[in-house]
Every structure is written in structure tokens, then in C-alpha cells.
Specification:
- By secondary structure, the protein is of the alpha+beta class.
- 21% of the residues lie in helices and 37% in strands.
- It starts with 13 loop residues before the first helix and ends with a helix.
- It holds the Pfam family Bet_v_1.
- InterPro entries: Bet_v_I/MLP, MLP-like, START-like_dom_sf.
- Belongs to the MLP family.
- This is Bet v I/Major latex protein domain-containing protein.
Length: 92
Amino acid sequence: MGKLEEDFEINSPAEKFYKRWSYEVHHLPEASPDKVQGAEIHEGDWVTPGSVKLWNYTVDGVQEVFKEKVEIDEENKTMTMVAVGRFIFEQY
């Protein structure tokens, strides 16, 4: 168990980026189908913080499943992705 935090530059207004990753991330397979093949709801829904999602993705030609939930802090405009198991923990 651990924490990974990253700062990076984006070519998008911060508000738009925050909205996309906090509430519209289900569009990711459409934007990057070679990396993310699909996503489905395991618990909750697409927009409620704390909902659990299952992602099908590919890294270096290996298909994996990533289970996550997102914690959203509207006041500070931050989101935290909490990974739940499998390959992602072996990589990071």
C-alpha cells in the first residue's frame, strides 16, 4: 500500500481538466481506445464520488483490469484515485 502523486503540465484549462477526470472519465475509452478498451460500473454510478469502476486497459501489449474508486474534493478541486488490486500495484 502506498501513495503516488504526480504534477504535470496540461494543455487545457484547469477547470475543464478537473471536470473531465472527476465526472466524465467514462469517455476515456473513446479518446484513447488503443490504451483503454472499456470501463464499467461495479458499484454506484459514473458521477457519484466513491463509486467503484472496472477498467480494461493495455500496457506494453498486456491486457489488464484496474478496479478503482475516486474521491472528489469539490472545495479544493482535487480528486484522488484509489486503486483496488491487481497489476497496477505491481507496476507502481
